[in-house]
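[job 0412] stage=fold_complex status=start
inputs:
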Amino acid sequence: MLTEEKTKNIKIWTGNDAVANAVRLSRPEVIAAYPITPSTPIIKTISNWAAKGEMDVEYISVESEHAAMAGCVGASAAGGRTFTATASQGLLYMMEMVYMAGFTRLPMTMAVVNRSLFAGWNIWVDHHDMYSMRDAGWIQIIAKNNQEAHDMIPVSFKVSENHDVYVPSAVNIDGFILSHVAGQVEPLSQKLVDDFLPAFDPIFKLDPADPVSFGSLTLPGRYAKLRQDHLESMDRARKHLREGFEEMSELTGRNWGSLVEIYGEENADVGIISLGTIAEETEEAVDILNTMGIGSFGATRLRSFRPFPFEEVVDAARRYGQIIVIDRAYSMGANAPLVTEIRNHLQKANISTPVKSLITGVGGQEVPYTLLVKMFQEVMKQEVA
Amino acid sequence: MTIDFTKLHHNFETSLTSKMLPTIWCSGCSLGSNLQSIIRGAKQAGYDFDHDIVMISGIGCTGRASGYVNIDGFHTTHGRALPFATGVKNGNPDLEVIVFSGDGDLFAIGGNHFIHTARRGTDMTVICNNNSTYGLTGGQASATSFEDTVTPTTIGKNDKPFNLVDLALGAGATFVARYTTAQYNTLPRVIAQAMRHDGFAFIDLVSGCPAIYGKRNGYPTGEYMIKNFKEASVEIDTSDPSYLLSENTAIEFDRKVGYTKIPIGIFRSSTMEGKF
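[job 0412] stage=fold_complex status=done
writing structure:
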């Protein structure tokens, strides 16, 4: 029989519930958002709380995603902790403002519920939307299940608002697979989040008592300095994200690893690198492959795409005999985004571990672990030029 | 009971894409009837569905319409129906362009395009399925949701809605009408008139979403909704120019009973030129 101390408070939450609840615990001051499937339930839940007075937040029911992100940019510049959620075409529509938030260095957190892009009209998961904001200067974190989505929200706020980093941050969850499927989540307590996440202390804010001007004309030399400074901040974000993840692991007892999560044989013949829910499916596939007598298999899941976990990827390439990278998106006329990043960095690090590419699961294509088992065996036969 | 849809017949089945049916629209929704009114209007105006017409829609429940009709269609992205339509009309001016989209698409996320397309007077017919909500994503507040109504994003509190007739008149649309789904006999004639109109024609087609918005706000069923539309509709008196004042064109709504006043009629058309 469980003793009282051992009884866990478990909720059955969808990924969207898990995100909304973590946002509430993080005490944002302003939320501007616009409905789009599959992220709508996040803002629907939050706006309900706001309307009933159960959450102390200014909720702005805007007319478009472009206005949502513009509102978030304004709110963050005014010194408020800011959140929004979107997906797919919504993210593309707000992209001008996504870059503005990134390049203006305005801390905030956005949940991106990954969904394919038009056309055809498809509402299911893939990562084309996530990659579209790759160069916007945002931190990009990817969760593999509802619990991780819940735990990552306070980390996202904390690292984003850290003066050493000071860039906006996106937490990605796979559409429908996480956003609409309920699973066990152990909620963070308000005390834990309050202790973990200090109040937002803006470096600059729109304050008549201490005037600043955002977005003024910047001549080429200073502009280049701004971008260089941003690059260095993102490099420092690696350290702060690692610390944030590790601190959250200690506080919750749930060890997600750090910038990457390693599963199965650490020094396997074949290592699979991927993002999001397909990485959890890969864990099952790895277990099966390890019983088949065709070599040893392991997996490394990236939890952050920006900043890119350079050291961890190099470490994986040193550990594995060969690597298979799963991409849930295409880059037409070139190699897929994630495999490109990995090959590029390994070439820079002068590591010759073969890196093979598997593109699957776009537009909600079903990818069960049984299929992954077959696909990995096919991909292993690829010739690497 | 399973229904064999191949054995069912529809009055306008040659105008519909049978493989897309049944529609996703809920029971009691205005959209089926409204789409039929558009088909009847286009036929009445004498257009050849195979050669003359293109239907463009945005995102939302109404957005699906372009896929259901058996004419060339483009289901565009959210809010962008009007700029797409402007491109289509300029690309092939012989086409009769119909934009059929919802209030969220045309007046919230695409609102800016509406005023500018109306201002430029591009020759097209824009029919807004105005049901005051984002039905497809679950009934959030739109730019025409009424004050003091309940939606998942606004509990009993809402900003003031747009008066679409007033907006279209102000933006320079040269044909402006408003009817409801319940004027089923009148609508095809008005739609035909709008399609023949040379310039930017706009119809505020007051519609209902009983399944999501209505059940929270006074009109819980399709049957009640149609009765409500009929009772609340007030034909405008164009002999008195004061009918154009925004207070006289505004729709009135009460959360407990639904619509209380819907001024309907043709507010501006080319036959009225020189009148004002």
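[job 0412] summary: Chain B has nine helices and eleven strands.
[job 0412] exit 0
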